[in-house]
Structures are given as C-alpha cells and as structure tokens.
Write a structure and sequence with these properties.
Elements lengths: L1 E4 L2 E3 L5 E7 L8 E7 L6 E6 L5 E2 L8 E6 L4 E6 L8 E8 L8 E2 L3 E5 L2
Parallel strand pairs: 2-11
Antiparallel strand pairs: 1-3, 3-8, 4-5, 4-9, 5-6, 7-8, 9-10, 9-11
Amino acid sequence: QLVESGGGLVQPGGSLRLSCAASGDRADNYYIAWYRRAPGKEREGVVCIRTDNSIYEPPAMEGRFSISRDSAKNTVYLHMNYLKPEDTAVYLCAAGTFGCLPTEYWGQGTQVTVSS
C-alpha cells in the first residue's frame, strides 16, 4: 500500500516536500515514481528512483524536482522547488518491479496547489 501526504497550498517560487509511505513490503525493493495529473491534462511522470537509488527524470521535466528514499521509514519523498502555478496537480506515487516509470501499484494522490 502506498499513501501520499504533504500536499497543500504554496505560493509561486516556494518549495514543498511530498511523502509516499509504503506498507506491506520494503520500498527499497521497488522502483518508485511520482506522477502528476493536472486538470484537463494527461497523467505525467515527474521523476523516478530505481532500486539502486539512481534517478530517472523524464526529458520534459526541468530539473526543479528531485526524489529520495528513507529506508528506515520505508518512505520516498518528492522535493519540489521553484514551484509555478502550472505545477498545480494531484501528485501520485507508484511502485513497480520492471523499471522506471512503474505503474503496478498506486497511491490515492495528494493535491498540490500553487497560487498567490
């Protein structure tokens, strides 16, 4: 099971950290990715961490987001910086065993709104 948290309202230019807490298995054994789904747009892969902790960032992303693991907490984080209004979306984490970007297991998502 994957549970996201940490979403909310943030001003443009601000930062936010989202959490994806895993239960039922070790998150270290999985590829974990963050996706986002903005109103009227298709779901978009944001960043992914592999089982060796290397990181994959889709070419469309601008390098403002990063991902990390805390094995002791069985949690993966999305670090978002220099947020823009167009970053407003529901952010979801997903896990899988076949590589980045995984789609096997999903959380419910957390809303991020970037607005002044």
